[in-house]
Amino acid sequence: MKSEAKKMDMLGGTLADKLLLFAIPLAASSILQQLFNAVDVAVVGHFAQNPAEATAAVGCNSSVINLIINLFVGISVGANVVVSNFIGAQDRKSANKAVHTAMTLAAISGVFLLFLGLAVSRPLLTAMNTPEAVLPYALQYLRIYVLGMPFIMVYNFGAAILRSIGDTKRPLFCLVLSGILNAALNLFLVIVFHLDVAGVAIATVISNVISSMMVIIFLMRERSEIRLEPGKLGIDRRDLVRILRIGVPAGLQSMVFSLSNVIIQSVLNSFGTQAVAGSAVALNYENFSYFVVSSFTQATVTFTSQNYGAGNYDRCRKIFRLCITMAMASAFCMSWIFILGRSFFTSVFTSDPEVQAYAIMRMETVLSLYLFIATYEIGGAALRGIGYSMTPALFTIFGTCVFRLIWAFSVSRVFHDFRVLMVVYPVSWILTGAAVLTAYFIIRKKALSPAKPRIR
């Protein structure tokens, strides 16, 4: 099929249907990507020789992995914005040049993260007060997982480039196939070869290799401005600056966000192995809900970037209204489905009653107000789409990250209770959302005024 048939017209026609056509495959893709980790947790939770320790090992690594990779995943958002801006401005040559800069950056960052992950794995897990019984398993899982970092980066940057033309279906296809392979390998390596934590990590690495290779093939077969040609790979300094100007603040926000979660995880670890394992189970459902919001976040960034590049300011405002409404409604529905079915959903991952009790406690506390995460996610995405990336990053760092650290070292120390620790999440979302939305409406008056020049 020709690539032009896959390209979505974001600059004209109705919006709501196109936003849904963009967001639904992206949400499915992200959920499948999360299933790599969720299947890991489920398999070791039921089939490992030491299920509680193995579940805790996989679960406590999620915040560490996010801390390691989120800076560069954020930079991939910058690549999406830059390529989308050029497409909106009908500058095909510049868009293609930006694609090759982005993919070169993806390969370099992936290799860097591989060696960084190997170097910091033990110090990070030790600093997080990982329970002694869990530490060997957690270290083994993380060291194998980071071997797939180059492929994770290539997939994320490649998928961001495909999204710049409105194509979210092919990344979904990649993850469907690699996700099925991941689940099959998990069961095979754990049940047949008894590799436990190492087995699920190996399966995840192989799956990441497959998904990244498929994205590269799709880009190389493109006939539009995002076509990837290996001979053109290289860094254009002007494009790199544009990508970093948008992507670094987004990445730093995610990185500091993950750092705060690492601190929270270190406090969580003090409640013992069952609490860590229970939290890991509940976190899977939070991630599923988050990725629904994230799909509309990516839709906001991409649609806003193209329309801002084309000077369609009224359409930018409408994109924000539709995306925040759909994101909040979707998050509310999904999170409450998990809460109402909490006994069943926790049993998917563990049969340990104490682990289940902690998982249910986290689900009831955190998921009940999960819709508020859409306020700062969509507000921040709309600002990045019009060139303001540092503003939402700063508000999110202070409203979410700094607040969580204060809570962890004050309230949680005075009231050493699992549920009290979990309350920090919804409170921080409400505070951050109020700040980011206020900033958005103030900046929008200036940035989306017809009398003002576009920011390039």
Indicate the mean pLDDT.
88
Fraction of residues in helix: over 70%
For the sheet with most strands, the description reads: none
Distance between the termini: 33 Å
Secondary structure: number of strands: 0
Order of helices and strands: HHHHHHHHHHHHHHHHHH
Tell me, briefly, the overall form.
globular
Rg is 21 Å
Overall structural class, as computed from helix and strand content, comes to: mainly alpha
Low-confidence stretches: 1-5
Sheet-strand content, in percent, reads: under 5%
Q: What's the total helix number?
A: 18
Can you walk me through this structure?
With about 450 residues, this protein is mainly alpha-helical. Helix content is about 80%, strand content about 0%. It is built from 18 helices and no strands. Mean pLDDT is about 90; it is low at about 1-5.
Write the layout of secondary structure elements.
Layout: H1 3-6, H2 16-47, H3 51-88, H4 92-127, H5 135-145, H6 149-163, H7 169-192, H8 196-220, H9 237-269, H10 273-309, H11 313-340, H12 342-347, H13 353-366, H14 373-385, H15 390-409, H16 411-414, H17 418-422, H18 424-447
Task: Please tag this protein with its features.
456 residues, mainly alpha, globular, 81% helix
